[in-house]
Design a protein that fits this description.
By secondary structure, the protein is an alpha+beta fold. It has helices at 4-13, 58-61, 159-167, 206-216, 231-244, 262-268, 303-321, 371-376, and strands spanning 20-24, 37-38, 48-49, 53-56, 70-78, 92-96, 108-111, 115-117, 124-127, 137-138, 149-151, 172-176, 180-185, 190-191, 202-203, 220-223, 247-251, 272-273, 276-277, 280-281, 285-291, 294-299, 331-336, 340-342, 347-354, 359-362, 379-383, 387-389, 394-399. Helices cover 20% and strands 30% of the residues. The chain binds adenosine monophosphate and magnesium ion. Residues 185, 187, 189-190, 202, 204-206, 251-253, 255, 300-303 line the site of adenosine monophosphate.
Length: 402
């Protein structure tokens, strides 16, 4: 049995990105950049006003106070979007708005709230509070300098970053292609939710959890019909999914029972198993294999095991397949509100609920078929074998809804 980190490293080592495509910026968020982009402009592109107010020469108004107002002559107006005007001379001011170009000669902006204006047409502005040089001015290039790197290859494009790219005039982004993943659930006991349950049957639940997790991991998903526990049925289903997709995620049928057909079916289709057991709970049986450039991720059938192995192993693999550099699960520090006890010999990723103050408590019963506690949980805490983590222990939790 492999340690989780070893299994993950082995998995990631064998995965290379699928290729790249160019997409419009508004569809690029949450995808992985496939090339570095540098800024061709300064941001802001010109010195501009941070306020609605009046552009002034600071020296004129440095001593202005409510009871010692300084009167300036209003000589013009620059709206946001307009080009600049003539130079502001001593004793003069120019009406400006947030984002207006700073007129030449001006070196500060008095905010509108600190002024009084005479009735037209006198064009006198009384400044009631002083400003220092460059107060309320946003400088050219203070946010981003021309030539600065806006995004690196392998970085996940957050909406903040796609906004930054747009601000620099970029309209398209080169990103890694999304893998198309076929999703299969095996098990002759399974019934589609919405149907009726004959004796011995259960509703199929893994696809309802795994499809959204796949989508969140950047994949496009094809969901296939339920697969009965027969070699022929499993082979047919796998053959179809491999023909239509870049990779396949299955649940169930990877254990040691004589009705577990995923491995045999995959091998009969020419797949090569690079399969291992991983020393974690829940989730020991986990299968990884290749068929040409395509990948098989065979998850255990127990619902919690399927989801936990997906999060710890498949999700990092999917991100790496999309060219991501950082594929580690997202974690948060938290403090235990009660002890978490692992009496077993494998690391136990225990379901916890972290409250708004960063205090984590068990989300309920931890057996690997108990979905109720998974539904309550928002994170997993890695509890080492034969260990009791005491209340108040500081731990790092893996977020479920990342
Ligand atoms: P298996 O890995 O196929 O031996 O399944 C282990 C357990 O998980 C059995 O109790 C199955 O009935 C259950 N199981 C397998 N697949 C699913 C599924 N898609 N939805 C709900 N339960 C499942
Ligand atoms: Mg089964």
């Amino acid at each position: 049995m492999l340690e989780l980190e070893e299994a993950r490293a082995r998995l990631l080592a064998g995965i290379t990105p699928l290729g790249t495509e160019c997409v419009t910026l508004n569809t690029a968020a949450f995808r992985i950049a496939a090339s570095a982009v540098s800024s061709s402009v300064d941001l802001p592109p010109f010195d501009n006003s941070a306020m609605d107010g009046y552009a002034v020469r600071a020296a004129d108004v440095i001593s202005a106070k409510a009871d010692a107002a300084v009167a300036l002559t209003l000589v013009g107006k620059v709206a946001a979007g307009e080009g600049s005007i003539g130079e502001v001379q001593p004793g003069q001011c120019v009406r400006v708005f947030t984002g207006s170009m700073l007129p030449p000669g001006a070196d500060a902006v008095v905010m509108q709230e600190d002024t009084q204006i005479d009735d037209e047409p006198s064009a006198r502005v009384h400044v009631l509070d002083g400003v220092k040089p460059w107060e309320n001015v946003r400088f050219r290039g203070e946010d981003v300098k021309r030539g600065a790197v806006l995004v690196r290859s392998g970085e996940r494009l957050s909406p903040g970053r796609t906004g930054l790219l747009a601000a620099a005039g970029v309209s398209r982004a080169k990103v890694y292609r999304r893998p198309e993943i076929g999703l299969l659930a095996t098990g002759s006991e399974l019934v589609e939710p919405g149907g009726s349950l004959a004796p011995g049957k259960i509703y199929e639940s893994n696809r309802a959890a795994l499809e959204p997790l796949l989508v969140r991991s950047g994949a496009t998903v094809r969901v296939y019909p339920l697969v009965p526990d027969t070699l022929a049925g499993t082979k047919d289903a796998l053959a179809r999914a491999f023909a239509e997709c870049d990779g396949v995620v299955t649940s169930g049928g990877v254990s040691v029972g004589e009705l577990d057909f995923v491995k045999a079916a995959f091998e009969e289709l020419g797949g090569r198993l690079d399969f291992w057991k991983v020393a974690i709970k829940p989730g020991k049986p986990f299968v990884f294999g290749r068929r040409g450039g395509k990948l098989l991720f065979g998850l255990p059938g127990n619902p919690v095991s399927a989801i936990v192995t997906f999060l710890l192993l498949v999700r990092p693999a999917l991100w790496r397949w999309q060219g991501a550099t950082d594929v580690e699960p997202r974690t948060v520090p938290c403090v235990l509100g009660e002890p978490l006890v692992n009496r077993g010999g494998r690391r136990h990723f225990m379901r916890v609920r972290i409250d708004g103050h960063g205090v984590a408590v068990s989300a309920g019963q931890q057996a690997s078929h108990r979905l109720g506690s998974l539904a309550e949980a928002n994170a997993l805490v890695d509890v080492p074998p034969d260990t009791a983590l005491p209340a108040q222990a500081s731990v790092t939790a893996i977020l479920l809804d990342e």
